[in-house]
Specification:
The protein is mostly helical. 88% of the residues lie in helices and 0% in strands. This is DUF4405 domain-containing protein.
Length: 97
């Protein structure tokens, strides 16, 4: 069994920790969905540049959407890092030790 899997199984038995894990999992899923949105917007921008429009949106409209998405992603990634800061610092210690 993977050590992380064992830790998550133990945490899932604790109701307080299970609630935290659900929040983190939902947030991670939201980031993943938004990431796919960024990929779609990037592809749409490229296609709109070549063809003049894609799905009824021009290149300029895709660029506006992309800038709004970019700001939203930066905020969400910052929140994600804050939520997982302890784990992140421990991983960095292992990486650079």
């Amino acid at each position: 069994m993977d050590p992380m899997e064992k830790i998550f199984d133990e945490m899932a038995k604790n109701p307080k920790m299970k609630k935290k894990l659900k929040i983190k999992a939902a947030f991670s899923l939201l980031l993943l969905v938004l990431f796919f949105g960024v990929i779609f917007i990037t592809v749409g921008t490229i296609l709109a540049t070549k063809n003049g429009s894609f799905l009824g949106l021009t290149k300029l409209q895709f660029m506006e959407l992309r800038s709004k998405y970019g700001i939203m992603m930066m905020v969400l990634i910052t929140i994600h890092l804050m939520m997982n800061w302890k784990i992140f610092t421990k991983e960095l210690k292992i990486l650079f030790s």
